[in-house]
Amino acid sequence: MSGKSAKEFGKELQDALLTGVSYMLPFVIGGGVLIALGFLLGGYLIPNDAYGSSFASTVFWLGKVAFGFMVPVVAAYIAYGIADKPGIAVGMVGGWMATDPWGVGQASGFIGAIIAGLIAGYLVNALKKIPLPTILKSLLPTLIIPVFGILIEGVLMFYVIGSPLAALTSALTAFLSGLSGGNLIVLGIIQGCMLAFDMGGTVNKVAYAFALAAMDAANYMPMAANFVGSMAPPLGIAIAIIVSKKMHVRKFHAEEASNGNLVGLFVGAFSMITEYAIPYAVADPLRVIPSLMAGSAVGCALSYAFGLTMMAPHGGLFVLFALNNVPLFLVALLAGGLVSAACLLALKKNVTDEEEAEAEESIEA
To answer: What pLDDT digit, counting tens, does each position of 118-146 carry?
Structure first.
């Protein structure tokens, strides 16, 4: 980073994030559609079926496998955007650790993947500068960077990043449980913000675990709010893309606004796959994440205000039969999507021709 102006550094970060997004999208879209098909074919209990026990379970778990690559891939290619090919292995290991592969309560989702990718990229660039005799320089990309890069990245992810996130998880769970008997509107706002903050990461999973625990106690209101808060982010982005096209305002890059990605966003919204919004959040986190949190907060608050209940743990629109009031559920969901869309259109800067050209170059590279 030395010798770079703040503007140059910011531009480097933006390019790296866009690179990570472009490589992540096929995993999000392919995996998400297969998961949705699994729910469609097998019902909302399909996650309980073992892989291969039926055609629906095979489709569902193939989708889950593809989806599982999303977090390591985005970290790997953020690192690649900063440090070129030597950054891929280091970034991928850091992203893999963000999925909590050992089940020790350190899942950090795409927020952790962004951190892992950035650490890996700048770590590898630092390792490239190690002064070595000419005879040993050939070992730098094949031995020294992979070994020391993965070691340092892994230690940082486990001891520095993972532990605070584990403590945060416990604190958030206790906080939500304390709110459940109080003001339901406040609970809805907080639950919605948590669901949209990292979309499948630590904070999101705490909110979902809270809703599952409430179901065990025969309280089905938190799960209804969970549905709204999880479905609103991709819906809000889809609405924002459509409105920006109608207004001839370029708020999204051409790839982000493509018809294929637009269809994917609607699939994500209808199937309760919040992660479809992640590529957009990674590309512009400071504007997109608050916009999505606002929409999910409004949607969840309305869900509690309407007294909605949901007796299924997952499935989106495929399990409407488990709702107590479908019309009001759709009102809450649409309101959340519209609020997110309005915030996105207000906060996101217009994409310039130069930025569009640079984004296309990073994708082609």
So the answer is: 999 999 999 999 888 888 888 888 899 99
3-state SS class at 255: coil
Report in angstroms the alpha-carbon separations of 126 from 17, 83, 97, 119, 133.
Answer: 19, 9, 22, 10, 17
The rounded Cα 167 to chain-centroid distance in angstroms is: 21
CA distance 335 to 314: 20
Angle at 19 between CA 17 and CA 21, to 5 degrees: 70
Tokens of 301: 């608050």
pLDDT digits (tens, 9 = 90+) for 281-330: 888 889 999 999 999 999 999 999 999 998 877 778 877 878 899 999 99
3 state SS of 75? helix
Query: Which alpha helices (H) appear in 156-284, and where do they start and end?
Result: 163-179, 184-198, 202-216, 221-246, 259-271, 278-283
Please name the residue that has the structure tokens 């549905």: 227
